């Protein structure tokens, strides 16, 4: 038996009461947004004949997500992070702030307070002898192509097992997380290890939601960046190591063509030296 009650004056009045429309205090914006959100959900319950069992199972799942601190992990999986970026891209396009490296999502695994270095940093703690050495070099430039000396380059990424320090108890504090202050030419260099893609923990509440949608929780290998300098817009972005099977199948929808980077093997020590890829190791 199905019933439809949403479009009755009782329900419409009830929603206004619940959203605080009859109260003096509080925030008008909060009232408007909660009113819209509840209206959409009440209507959904009516349209899909959501049962009390289904409703309480969902409440339970949300409690699990909260207990595991996974709302920030489910969020990119449901496309919110990328959608917010699409909106920011549209804002920038409107203001004619175009060109430059595209933004992409921050993700839930940034940790503030990483060690700071000038020009060069070694990012790995040296404990992972099996991983391949990776050099990251670049130059921070403004939209006119001019270098930005002293720009702050924050870099963080996973290890070869896809784990991030702070969240992965097997890693040392701030492993694979550094802040590099760009040199007089806006350049930075880092020595690190090649990361693997990340996977949502199996059996976790986020995994349960993705499984219910027939989806996976894998990300391709990537390296996160924050780039900032006084008087410039903050950039949150990533680079993707090209050739990963998940490049265009990222559960977090963060890949952008312009951010794909082809790693290149440097086997010749003379070339490494010529390109500044040797020490000082800190
Ligand atoms: C990650 O490493 C990440 O970057 C995102 C967006 C989500 C989960 C793990
Ligand atoms: Fe990540």
TrEMBL record:
The Enzyme Commission number assigned here is: 1.13.11.1
Record family assignment: Belongs to the intradiol ring-cleavage dioxygenase family.
Spell out the Pfam families in the cross-references.
Dioxygenase_C, Dioxygenase_N
Q: Which organism is it from?
A: Halomonas mongoliensis
Does Metal-binding count among this protein's keywords?
yes
Query: Mind telling me which PROSITE patterns this protein's record contains?
Result: INTRADIOL_DIOXYGENAS (PS00083)
Concerning PANTHER family, the annotation shows:
DIOXYGENASE, PUTATIVE (AFU_ORTHOLOGUE AFUA_2G02910)-RELATED, INTRADIOL RING-CLEAVAGE DIOXYGENASES DOMAIN-CONTAINING PROTEIN-RELATED
Pathway, per UniProt? Aromatic compound metabolism; beta-ketoadipate pathway; 5-oxo-4,5-dihydro-2-furylacetate from catechol: step 1/3
Q: Is Oxidoreductase found in the keyword set?
A: yes
**Which keywords are on file for this protein?**
Aromatic hydrocarbons catabolism, Dioxygenase, Iron, Metal-binding, Oxidoreductase
Q: Where is the Intradiol ring-cleavage dioxygenases domain?
A: 136-164
Q: What is the lineage of its organism?
A: Bacteria, Pseudomonadati, Pseudomonadota, Gammaproteobacteria, Oceanospirillales
Name of the protein in question:
catechol 1,2-dioxygenase
The UniProt entry, under SUPFAM superfamilies, shows: Aromatic compound dioxygenase (SSF49482)
Q: Which InterPro entries match?
A: Catechol_dOase_N, Cchol_dOase_prob, Intradiol_dOase_C, Intradiol_dOase_core, Intradiol_RC_Dioxygenase
Taxonomic superkingdom? Bacteria
Q: What does the record give under GO molecular function?
A: catechol 1,2-dioxygenase activity
Catalysed reaction(s) here are: catechol + O2 = cis,cis-muconate + 2 H(+)
Q: Which cofactor does it need?
A: Fe(3+)
Could you tell me which Gene3D superfamilies the record lists for this protein? Answer: Aromatic compound dioxygenase
